[in-house]
Amino acid sequence: MNGSAHDVVIRAPDGPELEAELVLSDGAVPRVGVVLCHPHPQYGGTMRSLVISVLFAELSASGLACLRFNFRGVGRSTGSYADGIGEQLDVAAALTTIADAVPAAPIALVGWSFGADVCLNVNDSRVAGWVAIAPPLRFQPSLFAASDPRPKRVVLAGNDEFRAASDVATEVGAWVATTVAVVPGARHFFVGRTDRVVTETLAGIARFAGP
């Protein structure tokens, strides 16, 4: 990391207090703010799950401001699981935190699995673009996600065991401003392929923030 991560507490608009970590670049003003959203809380997902941890380290090392947090009911976050609906309020609160930390920077919403589904349902004017990693699309994204002109990058695992990459690629194929990247040989957890996830995430962010 270019900077040191420090603990922060985020308050969701309906009350839960969310455990989070924020890292800012040392010296220079970060060119992008990133909010990272973790996998399903009911299946062991936390802000320290593999892909989120790697992205938190590698994106901040690239000079981006990064915020990761635990959804309500996870770790030290208060509240309880809310079917992917209350979690959208958690993301909105996280956006406020990163926007306050880097007010001049565009903001990327980056989610993995359940976190990707939640991100794709968050329609907030502060978001410059999305990167959705292995989204199962179980929580059907709102219609705005399909027609919204802001950039969307969908990163899929070639051998995803939860939903075939070809199925997701077909579903998002008609979305506007959307590109798809498939990581060959990867399974849903991207073990041994996280370097490709970092590369594709940076490529997605570059679409609205530059290289």
Name a few traits of the molecule.
single chain, 211 residues, alpha/beta, Rossmann fold, 8-stranded mixed β-sheet, 6 helices
Summarize the structure.
By secondary structure, this protein is an alpha/beta fold. The chain has six helices and eight strands, in the order βββαβαβαβαβαβα. An eight-stranded mixed beta sheet has the order 1-2-4-3-5-6-7-8, sandwiched between helices.
Describe this structure as you would to a colleague.
The chain is α/β, with parallel strands linked by helices. It is 30% helix and 23% strand. It has helices at residues 50-61, 86-101, 114-120, 143-147, 165-172, 194-209, and strands spanning 5-11, 17-23, 33-37, 65-69, 107-112, 127-133, 152-157, 178-183. An eight-stranded mixed beta sheet has the order 1-2-4-3-5-6-7-8, with helices on both faces. Helix 1 packs across helix 6 (194-209). It starts with a strand and ends with a helix.
